[in-house]
Structures are given as C-alpha cells and as structure tokens.
Specification:
The chain has one domain (4-167): Gcn5-related N-acetyltransferase (GNAT) (Aminopeptidase, 3-Layer(aba) Sandwich). Helix content is 27%, strand content 34%. The protein has helices at 13-26, 43-51, 101-114, 131-139; strands at 4-7, 55-61, 67-75, 84-92, 121-127, 143-154, 157-167. A seven-stranded mixed β-sheet has the order 1-2-3-4-5-7-6, with helices on both faces. The longest helix has 14 residues, at 13-26. The mean pLDDT is 94.
Amino acid sequence: MTITIRNLVPADAPAYAAFRTEMLADTPHAFTASPGDDPGQNIEGVRASLAGPNYAIVGAFDDMQQFVGVAGVNRQDKAKRAHIAWVWGVYVTPSRRGQGVARRLIAGTIQTARAWPGVERMSLSVSATSATARRVYESHGFIAWGTEPDALRTGGKSYDETYLSLDLTAHA
C-alpha cells in the first residue's frame, strides 16, 4: 500500500479534526490537549489556520485517502522568535507505525519550515517515555537540550517532556 505525504489544505479540516479524536484517545500522554480543550477539533479554527501563513499540517494518507499520520509545524509569532518553527501534534496510527511514516512526516515539516523565509531553527518536545519517537527526531539531526519533569499529567500519571532542537542552517 502506498503512503502519500502532503501538506493539508483548508478542505482537509473536517477529516483532520476527526482524526484528532483518535490521536488524543490513543496516546493522551503525547499531547498537551485533551478532548475538552483541543483546538485541533475546531473545524473552522483548523480551516482558518491552514489558510494562513506560517502554519502547516503535513498529512500521511493511504490509498483510500484516509489519514494514517500527521505532523504540525508553525512559525513562532513573536518577532524575537520568528526564526524558530515549532513541530507539534506528531502522530501515526498504530497499524502504520514502524513503516517510516513518522520519518517522512518529519521530513515534510522540515521542508515546510525551510520554505519560510528567515526560519533557521526547529524545536519540539516529546514525551520522555517515547524513545521510538525521539529516535525519529534524532535521525533528522534534532538534538535534545533538556527535560521538563512532570510536564503533563493524565490518567493519574506524570510524564516528563524532552525538548529537542534542529539547526536548519547546519543541516541544509
């Protein structure tokens, strides 16, 4: 089965919002959002964001054009941080894990960020329990620089977050 990687367009917003339900239910410790406060489930908000500059969601689709993975990236909106793009919301559906989908999604976020004038760095955070995800990021050159203890709490458990950064000028 073929996997297609492409940036989402505003018309993809309803399908993306529905996919977020799976994401948040499958790995709640991987996302700061919860079903009750998730802006990714607001179809109009997602549609507007996708139509604007400096914001993208890279999607992975199967042969039936169904989502199998996503990764978001946005440019920081403060002038002093406009050189940084933030990767967020990375997820691959369980049946597609271990097939290189996440690696291709991260490559898509890097390509997108490089197209934004002045972006020289990318940052992200990953649950400290997600060693596989961290290896994907490190395979693209991301370097861990710190860990936030007790960053998220869900299901009665505490999760640390590891922060990583990629210098786009060094990895052109």
